[in-house]
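I'll show a sample.
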Amino acid sequence: MKFNCMKGLAAGALMTVAFATTATAAECIAPANPGGGWDFTCRQIGKIMFDIGAVDKPIQVTNMAGAGGGLAFNHVVTERNDDADLIVAASSATSTRLAQNAYAGMTAGQVRFVGAIGADPGVIVVAANSPFKSLNDLVDAIKADPGSVAFAGGSAVGGFDHLKPLMVLQRAGFTDITKVKYIGVDGGADAITQTVGGFTQAMTGDMSEIVGFLKSGDVRALAVLTEERVPGFDDIPTAKEQGLDVVAVNWRGLYVPRGVSDDTFNSWADKLQKVADSAEWKEAMAANGLAPFTKVGADFQSYVDSLVVEVNQLSKDIGVIQ
């Protein structure tokens, strides 16, 4: 996909916004239409920042859909590179697309990732009657016979659901990941149906997709891919507990233009930390099925940098990119 006409498109998108605040008010770009994760991130985090006094003016939200986040990314890099009053909603999809060169040659290093303060945790799930009782049981079966286990997931081949079990297997020392079977279907519910029906042996997805199936007893979660166990699902062990150091979550966070000062970067990180610590954000996470996942400032930038490198290599290994 080429971006030679995106400056005009971006300008058009911005012209549709009626700015009710002063020119010094901050702006949050949601790289999608109203509704959905990126829009939620801008509106909820922006509202709480104002409500708790982290900013002194309401944050203006601009919806800029296009190219899976690429239109907004291009706009920030080419038009707003030193705008200290700009933040942009991001998620695991952002880092995955950058790692896979989906933004026409643009790279993660052209912006600065401020932080993430909530996430939909990644999970590895089997049917309730599966012989696999732990994540290591599943891994050992694949290492013994890669063709014996197929995963179903709600993303396409090369998407984040596909990459999660590959990360787990690489931590276990299994390198021939092209032999791992993966079937991409239309959403997490379909992936679980495939697994419960015995068409696949495991499902890879997000916590929000499996809650109802856990409650009904149709599935058993072998691992949650977070730093710590998820509140409310304390019986599900992490992959890390089982000796496989993988954190793979659909994080919700922000980036800022590359050209802003360190003081500006740190200021936005501090504001985001205040949101993470607030009762208002805890209520918002509970209402929207998010788990705690707080990384801000340099810690989060390092996390994204390493994630991009890993996803890029995995994507090459399975032939998604050259």
Observations:
- The chain has two domains: 6-119+250-317, 121-242.
- The longest helix spans residues 298-317.
